[in-house]
## 1
Amino acid sequence: MPPHSSPRILVFTRTTDYRHESIPDGIAAFRGLGAEHGFAVDATEDPAVFEDGLHGYAAVVFLSTSGDVLTPAGRTGLRAYCAAGGGFMGVHAAACTEYGWPFYGELLGARFDRHPTFQPGTLVIEDHEHPATAHLGGTWDFTDEWYEFREDPRGRVRVLASADASSYAGGAGDGHPLAWTREHGGARVFFTALGHAPQAYTDPDFRAHLLGGIRHVTDRRPDSPTP
């Protein structure tokens, strides 16, 4: 795509497995944040956009994608975008995506395994210096699916928030991360496991969490959104 006068974020929402009803709400939230904070948002489910090189995008967001969503050429395009210093952000079911592509799992940091019933619970905020969690206190009460992962990314990622498994039914173990950042393959990466339900995207704390993620993954780019 040609360059634009304002920074642009690509929100990708293709699904070939479970489809979240909250996807339109997530797109609306990103567009609202962009209108408020000076960046534009393109939303698509067309994998061909990755084959064109992602030119002009300050960041790519996988918003509750699921299953295999990229063509072989699209995988090559995303990997090249990351190698060139692109920003990558995954939200919720982004962890349920491209199970057969090792690079994607390494990029994100972990892959989804299971979750208990959608219910209220509590996150422990481990990093108050990051823009995605700086607005929160020591804990954050939220309602979601409380993802668990096939592997614990702790030690490979900068953990921002983790689950208090004692705060909800069906939790397995303590301290497993739910939001983190990392760098991989040249890309600056942010992931949050939150965002299952439509109402999450009107929650002010969650919207600030998403905005902090966008600020993180675009921080090294000259056309990044202004805080």
## 2
Amino acid sequence: MTELTRAPDPRPHIQLLDGFRLAFGPAPVHVVPGAQRLLALLALREGPVPRGIAAALLWPEATARRAAACLRSSLWRLGKPIPLVTAVDDALTLATGVDVDFRHACALTAEPGATPGAVAVLKADLLPGWDQPWVQTERDWWGEARLRALEVLSERFRSHGDHHHAHQAALAAVQTDPLRESAHRTLVELHLADGNPAQAVRQYQNYRALLRAELGLEPSAQIHDLMRPLLRSTG
């Protein structure tokens, strides 16, 4: 489980990063798939979701009548033992006090704090294995937001003289998107700053080979210029 570091919390907690989980304090709670999807949908949305839209998104293959019935069944299940969903007019939202790890993670992308735990949060995948279109939309946003945050975080660690965690953050960005040149360039710069030119050359050559194989492209002039003195010296 990947969570932001914080004190034990007795409130209901929904985990979306690295897989779905519902817990009350330290105790996990079993949730049937339909109710899982409803909680995840509401946890990902900033405001109330109309019932009709929720039903259509969660049960797209069903008729409107059947989808509405499935929604009512899920709501009934989630009303025990503590209500987790609140009805606002004809819309649904998470009940007040329900904690969501993804919302904390989103705040972290806006202002990455230079703490080791932040790297673990930002490298976590959103609902891996879920293939619903409404999840994929959020996953695409999360993918780009966390990459930018990891690069910012790497630079902040580096500016504080913490090259170990700067390297971890940049490596997490590369693992998330192996074709992202800015992350590879950061790793090259860190290797050079640490006095490891051989590692810098290997990082560059691995990236160059991957880029050629996947896209038939060459690295940009920016990273090539960074490597030029080393490449010349290695023949």
## 3
Amino acid sequence: MEAKLDALGYPVGDVDGDITKRAKQALCAWRETNGMPVSRGGLTAEDVRSVLTATKRPAANKAPGIYVNKTCLVLYQIVGKEIRRIVWVSTGGPGYETPNRTGTVWRKWAGAHESSLYDDAYMYDSIYFLKDRPGIALHGSRVNSLIKTYPASHRCVRVMRPQIHEIFAETPIGTKVQVYGKY
């Protein structure tokens, strides 16, 4: 199951036969992109049957853009009719929730910079998408260990490096960004 999900582009972490929290994120994303009930729950017989009989990742059923699913804690980058990549994210933790909203990329800041809101909080390849909430961005963090399997940021969407670098390079100003779901 893990090897097949990983081969189809759903990141599971270590392929070791253990359904970890990372593997559950991949299963959650699989369920969503295949029209199944979305949850971070454990492996079901329907999951096994669906994954093992798949020959390719399904086509995108959303318009081009970036979609952050807070239930699964994954980001989908859709280019054309293709899901370009699925990556792990960490959204805002308790008291700092990332709002469920749709916006468009209005500013990009390449490389590293310190947050204007939090001392010693460094952001990499920041993509800002809510003009009325200018402190919220998709960005890489100083270390990948800050991209937790639970909401842990201060409203932003933390993305693994080098994935944020690739997303940054492929995301023009004006790209749709939608945040939805509930952890």
